[in-house]
TrEMBL record:
Protein name (Swiss-Prot/TrEMBL): Pentatricopeptide repeat-containing protein
Protein family (similarity comment): Belongs to the PPR family. P subfamily.
Ranges of the PPR repeats in the UniProt entry: 236-270, 271-305, 306-340, 341-375, 376-410, 411-445
Coiled coil regions, renumbered to chain: none
Keywords of this entry: Repeat
Amino acid sequence: MLVRRWSVKWASKRVPPSTLILYRFLSSNKDDDVQKVLGIICSTSTPEQLKQSLKSSGVFLSNDLIDQVLKRIRFSHSNPSQTLEFFRYTGRRKGFYHTAFSLDTMLYILGRSRMFANVWELLIEARREDQSLITPRTVMVVLGRIAKVCSVRTTVESFRKFKKLVPEFDTSCFNALLRTLCQEKSMTDARNVYHSLKHGFRPNLQTFNILLSGWKTPEDAEEFFKEMRDMGVVPDVVTYNSLVDVYCKGREMEKAYKVLDEMRDRNLSPDVITYTSIIGGLGLIGQPDKARDVLKEMKEYGCYPDAAAYNAAIRNFCIAKRLGDAYGLMDEMVSKGLSPNSTTYNLFFRVFFWSNDLQSSWSLYRRMMVEGCLPNTQSCMFLIRLFRRQEKVEMALQLWSDMLEKGFGSYTLVSDVLFDLLCDMGKLGEAEKCFLEMIEKGQKPSNVSFRRIKVLMELANKHEALQSLAQKMAKFGRPLQVHESMESRET
């Protein structure tokens, strides 16, 4: 009772220091509380069950805890309807206000599940309760989900709806639309929308930087650069970096170097991003050694390479299949106090994957783990696909165990390949164990994976275990019937 009594007061926007101290005393392990709330959301099926379970849990529902819960749900496939009930229930408490982060994350979860009617309902509720929560970032979150599955026309119509929702429907919102179109549609779509709507807004430096950053051809970038100057908008380092990047990707290195000269003439110092583009461009024209020299030359201008710059140089040598030079640069990174990241390792994993080099991949993975660099999803996919190709069950299970323990990679993507391997090898016990471990983490296995395991369990006459798995899967949404046919596969 003491926890619940304090929760409403602490969750308000003004918190005295003494209350913070009391909160730390009452909730010593926030991660456990987050996991407990996640379990409640996944295990309850009605709003009333959710409400009662939260009340009896004794968990202190602070802004920070809610932010963390929604963040984890965003990267999983927990029931979006129950998540929305959780969001509304916590928001209805007297004196409590959701953060902008919570609102945007909830909108992302709904949009990902294509629950767009709920998206607009929630936005209207937010406008009524605290309109300041609806920001240009909110606009981009919502439009990003809509643009992913709807037409450009529908995306623009949705953008216009925000005119009645955001406190200021200005250029920052226009920029959010353009950024969304650049990411989810095409640069041609972004250009057309820009020209059709630009008279209703005042394009600024950010507008042009958004548009310039996405072009693949120098001609298109030059067109916008000219319009920018004609409007009196002064380019900055970001603008010039976009030009350098497009020239480098177009293998027009002479033009790229001319932009560097213009930057220096305007007393704008090229930064590490500028030089990273140059390094990448030199690699594209087959000059990895000259690109490596740029790492040294940039220091003369007071600009020191970071991990991304080294990664660009390493990529050049990996493409040229000069792995000795690539490893030498990675060692040089370490000597300079820079830690290789997952992107660095993925450059090697890609080479090993295509050359079917299991031993080198495994050795590199073990090195990552020893050095404390957690693999990302791409790393895991290179590995798990190689394990499946060579039918290495023990290595695959070790990767899965490390993922569960360390919390890296996408459980959903990796598990699909893992379950294929285990089912192909007839490892039903291991497949069932991994399936249950994934559900315990609040992650939804794909329906395809469920149906693969279902076939093996039916053949093994494990009907009760199969029914149990179906019931656990039902917590994530529509109940799966164990008699559903293989012909009705869904992704």
